[in-house]
Design a protein that fits this description.
Elements: H1 2-51, E1 59-68, H2 72-85, E2 89-96, E3 99-107, H3 111-121, E4 124-133, H4 135-161, H5 165-197, E5 198-206, H6 208-261, H7 267-275
């Protein structure tokens, strides 16, 4: 009887341990799964933080504006004064009679105020504003520069310890290539910074009525010139026709006179011989 009791207790203990071991395994698996989920949530939170704008967005804003002005010089002067006030500058200035074509750079924080000034004080006929997001390009370029600078520093440290000529030449060549790439990327980053920080405004100022009038005057001058040329060449044509018409009889009479007096008939010659 004792043996049976001991066997029963042993089997029960084994089953209990097995159950605990299985539970332990399940708990471990669940723990691993939970850890994986936590990692995924963390990555999603990071992406969401970027999407929410926790990093500074890099936006290039360009504006195209058309103004119809009765006094383009006055409008140009007021625009020039406002650009100075808003710490902007002219990128390009083209002018002709009754027209200005301007390319302006305005600090991004002053762009809305500048456009508002134009709309309140001038006859804005057309306005077009475009925004280009270069955030990914900007930070990608920035990270590439940092990575290359780290690699460049490692290569320089390696170069100090290198003793093999071939290795030295290869490392120096790689250093030169990296240096060129870094400088090129820094130039790209500077251009992006400039385009982001200073918005580009293309401003077309013109006096439509004056330009139409000027075009009409030019057209009238063209028509008058054509009429003058027609009359001039017509006069020359009539003169030549008249000249030919008058000249032919005169030439014929002169030829006949010569033929009678000095030619084969030669009346003058015969008279002269008789007198002689």
């Amino acid at each position: 009887m004792k043996k049976i009791i001991i066997i029963f207790i042993s089997v029960f203990l084994l089953l209990s341990c097995g159950g605990k071991s299985g539970a332990s395994t399940n708990l471990y698996s669940q723990s691993s799964s939970d850890t994986s989920n936590v990692a995924e949530v963390t990555e999603e939170e990071i992406v969401n933080e970027r999407a929410r704008g926790n990093i500074e967005r890099k936006l290039i804003i360009t504006a195209n504006i058309t103004i119809n002005s009765k006094d383009v010089e006055k409008t140009y002067k007021s625009v020039e004064e406002k650009i100075k006030e808003y710490e902007g500058y002219f990128d390009n200035v083209e002018s002709s009679k009754n027209r200005y074509y301007l390319t302006i750079r305005i600090p991004k924080e002053n762009l809305n105020n500048f456009i508002l000034f134009l709309e309140e004080n001038e006859n804005v006929e057309n306005k077009n504003i475009n925004t280009k997001d270069v955030t990914d390009t900007y930070y990608d370029t920035e990270n590439r520069i940092k990575n290359r600078e780290i690699l460049l520093e490692k290569l320089r440290n390696y170069l100090r310890e290198a003793k093999n000529i071939d290795e030295i030449l290869k490392v120096e060549d790689r250093i030169n290539t990296l240096t060129y790439e870094i400088e090129s990327m820094k130039g790209t980053l500077e251009n992006l910074n400039s385009s982001v920080n200073y918005s580009k405004v293309t401003l077309n100022i013109s006096d439509r009525e004056a330009m139409k009038s000027g075009n009409a005057n030019l057209y009238n001058k063209y028509i008058n010139l054509i009429s003058f040329l027609k009359e001039f060449f017509s006069s020359i044509g009539f003169f030549l026709i008249g000249f030919v018409a008058v000249s032919i009889p005169i030439v014929l009479i002169a030829a006949l006179f010569y033929y009678i007096c000095f030619g084969k008939i030669g009346l003058i010659k015969k008279l002269y011989k008789k007198i002689k």
